[in-house]
Structures are given as C-alpha cells and as structure tokens.
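Bumping with the actual sequence this time:
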Amino acid sequence: MLIIGGGGHAKVVIEALRAAGFPPPLGILDPRPPAPLVLGVPVLGGNELLERLRAQGASEAVVALGSNPLRQEMGDRLAALGFRLPPVIHPAAQLSPSARVAEGTVVMARACIGPDAEIGRLAIVNTAAIVEHDNRLGQAAHAAPGSALAGGVLVGDRALVGVGSAVRPGIVIGADAVVGAGSAVVRDVPPGARVGGVPAVLLGPGRG
C-alpha cells in the first residue's frame, strides 16, 4: 500500500490502516513532506515515483489528501496507472449492512453510516461524522469530523460539510460547495457556494 500525501490527514489514515489490519505501508509519496517519517512510515519521494513503483509491483494506494479536488485528481491518476484503491474503514466505525462504500473511500473511527447510504469514490467520512439513512455522498466529498447529515441528504462531488455542521433531512448540497464549521443547513446549497452560520446563509456565490 502506498500512501499519497504526508500531512496531518495522512496520520489519521495511517492509524486507520493499522487498526483495520492492513499490511504495513510501503511508504508515502509527498513532493513537500513535513518530515522524513510520518508515524514511522518513510517518505519515499514525490509523485514522480508512481510509475516506477507500479512497475516494481506496488499495486494498492490510498489518497491521504484533504483537498477534495486534489484527492479526486490523484485518485484518477492512480487508477489510470492500474493501482487498486481499496476503501479504508476503521474498525471503530459503524456501518449499516446495506450501506455502500466505493473504492478509495476513507471512513474514520466512530463514524456512523446508516441504511442504504451510498458513499462515493474517494470520499471521506471523518471522525465521528454521522451519515444517516439514504444519504448520497458524491465523489471526493467530505463529511468533516462531528458533522451530522440527517436522512436523505445529497452531497455533490467534491463538496465539504464542515466540522460540527448539521444538515436537515432531504437537503441537496451542490458539487464543490463548502459548508462552514458549526453551520445548520436548512435549505439547499447551490453548486460552488460557500455557506455558514445558524441557520446557514450564503457567504459566496454559487453556480446555476
């Protein structure tokens, strides 16, 4: 397993990998690593090593990048090179048997994913986030720590639901939207918009 990214999010991913029983990672790729080791995992170099490592037999990777667009971009690059992107689910997370989790997704400790929820490719369900029944998280979306999404919420591709936010049932959050920390979302959020507050109001323009 290669880990792409060596920042703070990588630390949580590394511990999730260990808790879930994955073999020790081969190493980390990061063009600007904060340190030569991250929780004991060596930084091998930058992303220019991907092709060589794949040719040498590396076959699985996890994208440990907090930026939603960058995570999707890197996931696409890895898939094109033939890497598998297994979901990483911390054993302290609670998943309904009917929930569906796509490749490349990371589900952190104490997260809760309800019945018939669908977590898209390369999404993050972070520590103690609640993604209730019939939710749909798009590709590379992120439910941040402590966020709570009630039933039937749709979160678009690359959208971020911020730390400690609450989302009313049936809300649609558009692609690339950002919900600020601690917000209460009671109406739909346009694609690309920034919203925040209690109740959440528009802070920046959306699309469409």
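The tokens above came from a reply further down the thread. The two ends are 40 Å apart (CA to CA).
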